[in-house]
Design a protein that fits this description.
Two copies of one chain form a homodimer.
Chain A lengths: L6 H9 L4 H13 L1 E3 H8 L3 H14 L2 E4 L5 E4 L2 H26 L9 E4 L2 H14 L3 E6 L2 H5 L2 H10 L1 E6 L12 E3 L2 H7 L2 E3 L2 E11 L3 E8 L2 E7 L2 H16 L9
Helix pairs in contact in A: 1-2, 2-3, 2-4, 3-4
The structure holds a DNA duplex (30 and 30 nucleotides).
DNA sequence: TCTATTGTTACTTTAGGGGTAACAAATGTA
DNA sequence: TACATTTGTTACCCCTAAAGTAACAATAGA
């Protein structure tokens, strides 16, 4: 029926502040170059009765030009200018908001010793923040090459200036990556990738300790990924444990615990 | 009651895609550093029952971190990172939309001989477009120094490469501007600043002719500003008329028309 | 004169956001 | 232990913006 309009484009325009119909009408006008309300309606499927209002508001916003007459003709303003302006306005707004937020919080102290992060982006963000705070050494344990791979370049940079200890459950899985890995062995790997708690399977994907005081553990529970940030003495203890293991060539696991 | 939250900030956050309550909750968390749902509610005025859902969605978006426990504590992710990410996503989206729109229209031909532009931004945009198309000469008539002033730097640039003829209704009003103006005289000025059509007062603010083929006339009707773009033989005729006036030192106005 | 199109108006429906009340569970207190 | 408070959740309501529908007067064309 209405083959001409790319739904992805409409979706993008919506994110830029257009309503669905505004997006359709504007996109329709761009491809028609110059058209009546009816033509826009026929191309886009926007109800004819609505096209008039919609084009009027677009015209007030400066996205559409009007030629008076009977019938009235409409024309789209060059997308370069329209998108450019929207972008500028958004930018101004973002900068202003950031300033105002910064007035509220000069710095964000991390009071608390344990935190849970539930969004993918939040996890990555926090990991990079930890990378930025390393002053001496970073210990990384991982069972997931894809996940670790995302931080390859960050880790390469860290390696230059700090002590970087990388431990994996299975050297073979990580052979593509250009690091000097230590291995825990199969037994430990199977253990951390299948922790059942209350019938829910937890799979540890990654664990990091920075300078023996801050740690982050990333795991999947069900289909969701989650991370826990810990700043407690236990982190220091874990660090020691890892050193012992590195020296003795083995790690002790108390599966009773 | 809730003095702490700047309404401007909330407004900005809304433009960045937050809902009102999301904005309040996030801003509240930023100033509280670390807080329970109740504390956020008390600071921001967001209904307590809603705070839980709102903080949950913010957490899924990665704008807020959660410390499990009883009660649950929440913490805002650094505004720098949050706003930064929103900005990036918006940017990507804008670029994508622009590409998709450009696929629809490789160029926008200006078919039509008369166009009406109703938005402030649209008018300025079109005027600058006309400036960009000048190949030989531009004639500008203005009765409004403020409006013309907005284009001072554009005109200065044009003056270097093309013939620029500036005409005003009253030299005195424009004496601040660094151009060599011609004057029409009071009679003509009064005429164009007070055109009554069907009881509505039209006031001509600005009129431009580029290369004798394209013209734009900006006027205010009531409290709204409007522009008409014309590409008709009449434009050429007007151009001639102006030359005649420049030579003879006067202009004829047929107020009967 | 008749017909189709244009432009307008009034109405319905839907979804999302906001606000309120009420309640079970957990926690704290006399 | 009994009671009160707080926490977290659920079920509602209201309102608005946007989308869709139907009908009609004015205009233009045959």
């Amino acid at each position: 029926m209405y083959p001409a309009i790319n739904p992805d484009l409409i979706h993008n325009l919506e994110k830029l502040g257009f309503t669905e119909n505004e997006g359709k009408a504007y996109a329709g006008l761009v491809s028609l170059k110059e058209a009546t309300a009816r033509e826009v309606h026929e191309l886009t499927g926007v109800p004819r009765a609505k096209v008039y209002d919609i084009l009027k508001t677009l015209s007030k916003k400066g996205f559409v030009e009007v030629r008076q007459g009977s019938p009235v003709y409409f024309q789209a303003v060059d997308p370069k200018h329209v998108i450019g302006r929207i972008k500028d306005e958004f930018f101004t707004c973002a900068i202003e908001a950031l300033d105002q937020l910064n007035e509220l919080s000069y710095d964000i102290p991390r009071f608390s010793p344990v935190w849970c992060i539930q969004s993918e982006w939040g996890i990555r963000n926090r990991i990079r923040e930890i990378f930025g705070n390393v002053r001496d050494e970073l210990i990384v344990f991982s069972t997931n090459p894809e996940f670790l791979g995302e931080f390859e370049s960050d880790l390469k940079k860290l390696e230059k200036n700090y002590r970087l200890i990388l431990i994996v459950d299975d050297l073979n899985k990580f052979r593509e990556m250009p690091f000097d890995f230590k291995e825990t062995g199969k037994e430990f790997g199977d253990f951390v990738r299948n922790l059942f708690i209350d019938g829910v399977q937890y799979s540890e994907e990654c664990f990091m300790i920075a300078d023996g005081k801050e740690s982050i553990a990333v795991h999947t529970a069900g289909d969701k990924r989650e991370a826990v940030v810990i700043r407690l003495p236990v982190v220091c203890y874990l660090q020691k444990l890892i050193y012992n293991w590195l020296v003795k060539g083995g790690i002790m696991i108390d599966t009773q615990q």
